[in-house]
Amino acid sequence: MSATERASPREMGRLRWSGLGWKALPPLSVVVLALLVWEYLIPRGIVPGVKAQYLGTPSGVWAAGVELMNEGYGGHSLFAHVRASLFRTATGFAIAACIGVPLGIVLGYNKRAGAFLLPIFGFLRPIPALAFIPIVVIWFGIGEFAKVFVIFMTAFLYVLLGSVSGVRSVPNDYFRLGRTYHLSTFTTLFRVVLPSALPEIFVSLRTAMALSWAVVVASELIAAQVGLGYLIQSASQVYAINKVYVGVALIGLVGVTIDMVFLVIERRMLHWVGR
Amino acid sequence: MSGGETGVAQIELREASKAFATGSGPRLALDAVSFSVAAGETATVIGPTGCGKTTILNMVAGFTEPTRGQVLCAGQPMTEPGPDRGFMFQRPTLLPWLTVADNVAFPCRYGHGLRRQRSAAEIDEAVRHYLESVGLADASDLHPHQMSGGMQSRAALARLLIAESSVLLMDEPFAALDAQTRLSMQQLLKHVVKSEGLRTVLFITHDVEEALLISDHVFLMSASPGRILRHVEVPFGKRENYRDVVLLPEFTELKHELIDQLERLVPV
Q1: Which among B112, B162, B158 has a CA at the least distance from the CA of A180?
Q2: ipTM of the complex
Q3: Are B35 and B21 in contact, with CB atoms under 8 Å apart?
Q4: A22-34 per-position pLDDT tens digit
Q5: A181 to B144: CB separation less than 8 angstroms, yes or no
């Protein structure tokens, strides 16, 4: 490339600005405007029906965030709250995945076994996991096990039925290929059925994880001494609205991060999907 | 009807009928179909949609059994699929998570009862050989989604050939390809089958020209129920170069005769 063809740094800056900057500008300006309104107008009581101090301010949220980072909440650091919620979710989800995926593959593959059990699981799945919470509290009390169990119930049914559906959508010609070359059942399952069903299994795992994360917060609202659900519930009881906002934002942030981790794993493992 | 007087019958249908259960009672798809294909020959079944072409192929493959009559391969009744009868599907049916080389190696690596048990090194060598023979020597590391439809068909053909099945069953394998690619696949099939020794091919197609270009025998079928109307012994079946064939007046004449006959079966 000759010198005349090369853009000067200034031009490059302008190009970059025109490419990315202009696209980011409109939404950014909306956010800035909203923050300004929230900071300066809302505290004057312009929202009818809600007391201005219960609506918080951006600067208050920032201060609450800094305070939570430095001092934690309820005797636990902010990190400990995140860790507690994550640990419950991960435990319930992992158990659900370890049982749900293999069982789903077997029930999807073996039509007779599926006919026995699938209608039952199909009936249970639409019941919101939160409806199980009172039952689980009666059975197991309000300890850790109850929370993990509720998450397990949520994730298990999704993963199981997703795996069944994944196996059932394996093209019939793959099975014919397997029968033609007399593949063993083991090879058929692990070399043909599982990889073919994996994209759908992964979608169900991702959905189950997102649901689990929502459910862990809900289960912590009821009875917990640590965790993000506990944090927002407890802060709201003393009207510390800015801390509640921080907790809610953190719940969203962790949820998005988890989903992104799943997406990265999915892209790596399922490199052939969507091409 | 007999397809070829030389050699033993590799594929034989004896009065084979097939009925399917439908909502309004059983429907006869195939009515007492009889024909045979000698070892080393290529036979094609053509006919209108619903004439039971694919049912014939599925019966020979062992995916389904005749309601009446017999379907024999090398004198044995066919009751289940096996590696002695390789099947090429309408779509390439490559496993998308495997590379082309792994797809081609698949029957040898995981199959049972193949004619030859190969060591890992022998499998690699065979994969190289068959990929080369279908013109995919440089594509071995690609995944199916990185290839065109024609390349995928070539890979599927290599996977079919590597198992060294004595019978090749092909269910409209080139139907979805563009005209140019289809022609090159037909040439390739013909060339490979001739050069690889005794392989008996049973081919299904809608395309009269394709049937005449690749086969030694053509069986024309009628629909509802499927019956064999006509057996054509293709006089130029042994010629490999399609140009030598398509320019022959007899080729054009036979082609139009069969097309006319097919059109009468399916009123436009």
Answers
A1: B112
A2: 0.90
A3: no
A4: 788 888 999 999 9
A5: no
